[in-house]
Specification:
Blueprint lengths: L2 H10 L6 H13 L4 H9 L7 H13 L3 E4 L7 E4 L6 E5 L5 E4 L5 H11 L9 E4 L11
Parallel strand pairs: 3-5
Antiparallel strand pairs: 1-2, 3-4
Length: 142
């Protein structure tokens, strides 16, 4: 997102563009999928004085104004990514931690069945499958 658009969006909500907010948003965009701790590490390479509390508060703000969204890809911290991306299903490798994305249409038949039979509406943006990526194989040591 261009700096002027971000500044205008923030101003329209009574907020101002700070260097920290800009750095944190850029880190999320650059990293693709990142925990607050990963964002913190990336931001500290540029601005060593930014603390983890600022990262968490800014991510919450950026989510509230619709620039980022989060999902839970493990039992740890939430993982943030750009909100402008299309919804997708996350594939998380238990071995190397790689995160891949697949089209939510793969989930459509199951989502429709759950809606029909149980009245349950799946939030596809929060669906994650855990397993092993092609690079890691079946996870057994050779």
């Amino acid at each position: 997102m261009p700096e002027t658009s971000l500044a205008e969006l923030l101003r329209s909500r009574g907020l101002r563009l700070t260097a920290q907010r800009q750095l944190i948003l850029q880190a999320v965009l650059d990293l693709g999928h990142a925990t607050p701790e990963q964002v913190h590490t990336a931001v500290r390479e540029v601005a060593a004085g930014v603390n983890i509390t600022t990262i968490y508060r800014t991510l919450e703000l950026l989510e509230r104004i619709g620039l980022v969204t989060h999902t839970h890809l493990s039992h740890g911290s939430p993982t943030y990514h750009a909100a402008g991306e299309d919804q997708h299903i996350h594939l998380v490798c238990r071995e190397c931690g790689a995160i891949d994305e697949v089209d939510p249409e793969l989930m459509r038949p199951l989502a429709e069945q759950l809606a029909r039979e149980r009245g349950f509406r799946v939030d596809i943006g929060h669906v994650s499958f855990f397993g092993n990526c092609a690079r890691c194989g079946d996870g057994s040591q050779e």
